[in-house]
Amino acid sequence: xxxHLPLIESVTAVALIGAVxxxxxxxxxxxxxxxxxxxxxxxxxxxxxxxxxxxxxxxxGGRELLMPxxxxxxxxxxxxxxxxxxxxxxxxxxxxxxxxxxxxxxxxAVPVNPVNGRNTIRAMPAGYxxxxxxxxxxxxxxxxxxxxxxxxxxxTPAE
Length: 159
Prior knowledge:
Helix content: 25-40%
Structural class: mainly alpha
Shape: rod-shaped
Strand order of the largest sheet: 1-2-3
Number of strands: 3
Number of domains: 1
Number of helices: 3
Largest sheet: 3 strands, mixed
Strand content: 5-15%
Order of helices and strands: HHHEEE
């Protein structure tokens, strides 16, 4: 007759197989949980496209690129409404020729950050080249570089 495993050895073997299966599945679960929401990536893509289009259509005269929000301008107003060639959101009495043309809008609405539920853009002040995350807005924008990030406290500015 063939040799049969005793009950204790069988239970131990099943427990070890189960433990290996659980430990194998955990790293994949952690990696999936750490990945950002697809909606967050979609919102970032929409905002980055709007910022890029704005910078390509505006010619400030003398600068390489005009990013929305530079010189203290309201980045939300510049992306959601019509703007002049110099980025101004108000009509200019001196506007003529190409300066009389309106550009934009580049967004219908600011996308909602699905992690914190906010749809506002907080622009960093002049001189800041890195964002500061405090959770007070949906997105943090750095006008000097044109980079935009989700405003999630504890995050790093890596894209």
